[in-house]
Amino acid sequence: MTDTMLTDAAERMFADLCDKAMLDAAEDGAFPSALWNTVAESGFHQLAMPDSGVSLGDAFAVVGIAGRHALPLPLAETLLANRWLAGSDGLATIGQVQDGWIVDAPWGRAADRILGLDAERGACVVVELGEGVQVREGANLAGEPRDAVALPDGAEWLPLLEPAYAYLALARAVASAGCLARVLELTLQYAGEREQFGRAISRFQAIQHSLAVMAGEVAAAGRAADAAVDALDGDRLELEVAVAKARVGEAAGVVAEIAHQVHGAMGFTHEHQLHHFTRRAWAWRDEFGNETHWQRRLGRHLAAGGADGLWAFIATRG
Amino acid sequence: MLQFDRVTLPEETESLRRDVRQFLADNAEHLERPNSDFSTGHDPAFSRKLGSQGWIGMTWPKQYGGSERSFFDRYVVTEELLAAGAPVSAHWIADRQSGNLILGVGTDEQKARYLPPIARGESYFSIGMSEPNSGSDLASVRTRAERVEGGWLINGTKLWSTDAHRNHFMIALVRTEPPSENRHAGFSQIIVDLHKDGVNIRPIRNMAGGEDFNEVVFEDVLVPEDRVVGEPGNGWKQVTSELAYERSGPERFLSGFRVFVELVRAAGPDPEPALAAAIGRIAAHIATLRRMSISVAGMLEGGKSPEVEAALVKGLGNDFEKLLPEIARLAADDSIAAAARFGRFRESLRDTLLLSPSFTIRGGTREILRGVIARGLGLR
Fold this sequence. Notes:
The complex is a heterodimer.
Chain A: H1 4-17, H2 20-27, H3 33-41, H4 56-68, H5 75-84, E1 92-98, E2 101-106, E3 113-118, E4 123-128, E5 135-136, E6 146-150, E7 157-159, H6 164-193, E8 195-196, E9 199-200, H7 205-230, H8 237-263, H9 274-286, H10 291-305, H11 310-314
Helix pairs in contact in A: 1-4, 4-6, 6-7, 6-8, 6-9, 7-8, 8-9, 8-10
Chain B: H1 13-26, H2 44-53, H3 71-84, H4 89-105, H5 108-119, E1 125-128, E2 144-148, E3 151-159, E4 169-175, E5 187-193, E6 200-204, E7 213-223, E8 228-233, H6 235-247, H7 257-267, H8 273-301, H9 307-331, H10 334-337, H11 343-355, H12 366-376
Parallel strand pairs in B: 1-4
Antiparallel strand pairs in B: 2-3, 3-7, 4-5, 5-8, 6-7
Helix pairs in contact in B: 1-3, 4-5, 4-6, 6-9, 7-8, 7-11, 8-9, 9-12
C-alpha cells in the first residue's frame, strides 16, 4: 500500500511550487534554490535513506509525483545518492563515468556531491563539488541540466550494493508515467476549452478517439511503472524494470504526439506549458536505456529461458 | 481519471494454476494444433473434461453446478487455457456471459435448468445480438418477439452468431415493444433452443476458411413464455452489463500468444539483437495488459461494474493483438521464416494473421470502445 499521507503532501507541495514561471527559470539554468530548500526542509530528499521510515516504493511514488509536475530538481538522483552514500544528506546527484568524466549528471553544477556510476563494474566514485572541480554544463532535450564533472585523479571506487542502473531507469519510468498522466489532463482540459466550428473540439469524434488512445497509453504506462515498483523487493526487479521502461517509453511517444496534435499550434509555443511535460517524456525515455535497450535485455532473458518458460514468466501473481 | 489498481492474485490461485497445467499436460491430445484465440477449437470432449474438473461456471453457486470460486480463480483457469492454446470455444460464451446473465437476472427455474449442464461442459450458447443491419448500433435491432398465446413469436434475423450451427442455445436480443422516443427501451433477451425451436441456420464461411459464424433466421418461431431472461423490456440494460464480463478478460490480448511462443522457440537461446528486442517488446506489452486486465478482474471481484476500464483494456489489448503478428513477422528473417523446421511458427503466424481482422471487431469494435472510453473521460 502506498503511504497516501506522504504522496498527498508531495502532490500539494509540487503542485503549489512548480508553475510555468518556475519551470521556465529552471530551464534558463539557474538552480531553483528556494524550491530546493522547501523540498529539503520537508525531508523529501532523504526519503530513500535506509532509516527514513518510508519504504523505497513510497520514495519512488514521490518521484512519480515529481514527474507529474516536472519538478525541476534532481530528486530521484538525490534520493538514491543519499541512500547509497553513508552520511550524505544534501543535494546529491548521479552521473555516469565515461572517459575521465562523470557525464549526464542532473544539476551537477549545483550539487554538493556527485556520484559517478560505472554500472558494468558495479562501482561508483564520489566527487565533492568545490574549488577547482571542473564542470561542463549541458542539458537534455527538455532543457533539464545534464552536466559533466571531471573525475579527479585517484578517485576512490566504492562497490554498489544495489542495481543502481535499474533503479535509475525505474525512476525515469515512474516519473514518465506521472508526467504522461499530466499530459492527458492538460489535453483533456484544453480540448474542453478550445472551440472551433462553434463547439469545443472535445465534441468531435476524431478528437475523442485520439484522447481515448491517449488514455489507454497513459493507463498502461501507469500500471507498468507500478508493477516495477512493486518488484523492488523481489528477484526479478531488472526484468520488471525492463517491462516498465520499454512499455512506458512506447507510451511516451504516442501520448506526446497526440497531445501536441490536439493542442494545435498553441501547444507548439514556448508560452504554453505543454512542452515542459512532453519534452521531458521524450527525454526520459532515452535516459538509462531506451525501449530497445530494455526490450533486448528482456528478450535475451526470455529466449534463454526457452519457449516453454515464456508463459511462466508472464503469469506472475503481482 | 481511469484507475487500474495494483491487484495481486491470491496465493491460493497458485495451486489451481499448477492443477490446470497438469491437466493440460495430461490431455495433450486435445492440443495438437494449439491456438490462443478463444473462438478456435470447438472440442466438446475437452469442454466436458473441463466441466468435470469444476472449471466451467466456477464462480457460480454449487446449487447450480458451480464451484463458488472467485473471479481470480476463474481468471487463472482462463488464462492458462488460452496461453496453452486449448480448444475452449464450445463452452466459451456459455461460461463467460450467458450463464452469468441467467444467474444474475434469470428465474430459479431457469438457473436450475440451464446452469448445471453449462457447468458440466455439455451445454453451449451462442450470442444473438448483431443483425444484418445492426452491428455497432445494437439499439437498431429489428428482430421482434410478440406475446401470443403460449409464449413469444419471434421474427427476424441474427448474424455473426458464432457456432450457432453446433451450439444448443442462443440468447437473442429482441424487440418486445415497438421503437419509441427512448431507443434503448423495449428490448428483451430470450433463450432460443437452436435445435428444437425451428430456427433456420446458415453457416457463413470466414476469410480464414472457418465456418464458425452463422446467420440465424426466425420465421414465426414460437418459444414458451418462460424463455425470457430477466424483465421484459429491460434487455438493453442487461446486454450492456454483460459487456464488462465480455470485454476485459485475457482473451482480449492473448489471441496471438502461440505466435509469440513459436517465435521464441525459433529464436533459440541466443537471438540476434533485433529479434531479442522484438521478443522483449511483445513480452512488455503482454505483461502490462495482463496486469490491467487483472485490475479489472479485481473490480469485478469487488462487485463493481467497470465498464469503461473494461473497454479500455479490450481496446488496448485488441490493437496489440494485431501488432503482435506484425512484430513477429518482421523479426523473423529467412533463417526462421524460410526454415523447414520452423513450420509451426509460420502456421501459427498465418492462422493468427488471417483471424486478426476480427480482433478489433468482435465484442465491440475499436470505434465503439473508443466512444465508451471518451464517455468515461467526460467528453460525451
